[in-house]
Amino acid sequence: MVGKILNYYAGGNTARGFYSLYESNIEGLDRIFILKGGPGTGKSSLIKKVAKVWNEKGLDIEMLHCSSDIESVDGVIIRELGVGIVDGTVPHVIEPKAPGAVEEIVNLGEAWNPVLLREQKAEIIDLAAKKKEAYQAAYQTFARALKIHDDWERYYIHNMNFSAANKLTDELADKIFQGNTLDKKADVRHRFLGAATPAGAKDFVPNLTEGLTHRYFIKGRPGSGKSTMLKKLAKAAEEKGFDVEVYHCGFDPYSLDMIISRELGFAIFDSTAPHEYFPEREGDSIVDMYNSTIRGGTDERYEHEIGIVKDRYTEAMQSAIGKLAEAKSWHGKLEKIYVKAMDYSIVDAWTEKIKAELQAIAENKKL
After folding, report:
1. What is the pLDDT of residues 33-42, one digit of tens each?
2. Alpha carbons 342 and 82: distance in angstroms, whole number
3. Domain of life of the organism in this record (predicted)?
C-alpha cells in the first residue's frame, strides 16, 4: 500500500526576499542529508528517487517543493524514519548543527568535470550575475506590491468593526476547540500555503486539507482581519497542546494564510485570490469577514479608488512574476552547462548509498 504524500513549500520568493522556513520542518529529525552542488547536478532527481522508494513501501512522506521551478523539489521528509533530504544550496542554505551525528553534507560537485566548467567560466559568471539581478528585481517589485497592498488594506481597516472581528474569532475558537486541551507540548511547524513561482501563484490546498473533517473558508477583503484571526487561533491551538501546522502567506511571510490541526481534524484558511476555493463537501463552511466585520457599503463607497489600487497591485505582481521567469531562464542556461560537465554515475552512487542507509534505519526501527 502506497503511503500518503503531503506537498508544501518551505521556502518562498516574497516581498521580503527569499524567506526560508526549512528549519521549522527538519527540526527533530535524527538524520539529515544536505545536498550541495550547482545547477543541474541532480539534487531534485535524487530527492524524488529516494522519496518514491519509501512512499511505495507504504511510508508517508512530505515533499518540499521548489518555489523557483514547479517541476523541481527541494526536499523530502520521511518522519517515520526520522530522515530528511534537503537541497542546502543558495538561497535555502542549511548549516549543520551536529555535523556527522545528525547532518551529512552530500557534495554532488564531486560529479562534475572542473576542466570543462573552467572553459566556460566567463559565461557561468555572466549567467549567474544575470540570474541574481533578476531575483533582486523580483524581490524589489514584490516589496513595491506589498506597499500598494497596504494602501488597498487601509480602505477596509478604516471601516472595520474590531470588536465584531474579536467576537467572530472567539466564537470560532469555541466551535473548534470545544473546551478541549491536551496535556503535552504542541508540535508547531511553519510552512507556506503557496508560492509565487515563474508560472504564477501555486498552492497545495486540496492536498493539505484532504481527509480533514472540517474546513473553514475565510472570505473577505485585504485588511479585514483574516491573518489576525489565524494568528489568534494558531496561538490558542498551541497553548491547548494541539499540534498545529502554521501556513504563512507566500507573498508576505509575516502574515498567515492557513492553520491545520490534524488532531482536531480541521483547517481554516484565507480562501481569497490567488488561493480561492469554495465549499464542496460535507464539513466545509464559509467564514465571511467582510459581512461580519466591515461597514456595509464600503466596496461601493470606494469603488473607484479601490479599482485603481487593485490595478496597480496586479501590475506590480505580474511584473515580479515576469522577473522570476527571467531568473528561471538564466538558471536553465546555467543548468545546460553543468549537465554537460556531470558524471551522473557518481550521483547514482550517492543515491544508492542514501537508500542503503535509510534501509538500515528502517530495519533498526523494525519498519
Report:
1. 999 999 999 9
2. 31
3. Bacteria
